[in-house]
């Protein structure tokens, strides 16, 4: 009985239908050109890391905890921010779209882990700029610029977003319509964080000494933000099969039916 049921499930994985949607193909129907834009998105992030690395090198390098030359500590601030937000957080937001047919639990764990890693790098970046100000001979005040205010807001919202996502989506316990409703809020907030974070980095770049590398970095981040916004909003990363987790979130079990009408549940 069990082997027969397993055989039936395997048969419908290649081609099955929902009662109200007709036959769905077993392989994802994705646009062929969308992956070209994904490659461009990744290359823009790597270019941003390269450019900020050049800026750090041309500015004397970076050194953690140097109280005699706090400017070297400050140089680590933009480096950590680009590494944490552009390289890690930006790609983590798209992890569900890059692998739409992967195990949903594995994706959630990877998403949460990478988001936390990016957040930690950003916290180190904030600490670096605070340290450099504390040991600077000019003793500048903290959190007086638009850049610092928006940066603090982004970091706080990211913290709340991670905690709510961890307890609302990753940890078992929140089910049904409440979980499905929060998922929409979580996705929307993630998109806002991405665009606001990119804008925050552009404001920070504007405060650096203008050079060819910083100007190119600003253009790179702007292109990265625009392309990232497109990849987050497009529906071309479609799934080739129903998401059983989505059905569970709605508190129901959606049948996958053969064209003959026999219901098979996953």
TrEMBL record:
Which segments show compositional bias classed as Polar residues?
257-266
Keyword presence, Electron transport: yes
Instruction: Note the PANTHER family from the entry.
Output: CYTOCHROME B561-RELATED, LD36721P
Main location per UniProt?
membrane
Entries under Gene3D superfamilies matching the protein: 1.20.120.1770
- Show the segment(s) annotated as Disordered: 240-266
Chain intervals with Basic and acidic residues compositional bias: 240-256
Which residue ranges does UniProt annotate as crossing the membrane? 34-56, 76-96, 108-129, 149-172, 184-205, 211-232
**Protein name, per record:** Cytochrome b561
Write out the entry's keywords from A to Z. Answer: Electron transport, Heme, Iron, Membrane, Metal-binding, Transmembrane, Transmembrane helix, Transport
The cofactors it requires, by name, are:
heme b
Which GO molecular function, any one, fits this protein according to its record? oxidoreductase activity
Q: Name one Pfam family in it.
A: Cytochrom_B561
Gene Ontology CC = membrane
**Protein location:** Membrane
Q: Which InterPro entries match?
A: CYB561/CYBRD1-like (IPR043205), Cyt_b561/ferric_Rdtase_TM (IPR006593)
Residues covered by the Cytochrome b561 domain: 40-240
Its topology with respect to the membrane?
A: Multi-pass membrane protein
Q: Which SMART domains match?
A: B561 (SM00665)
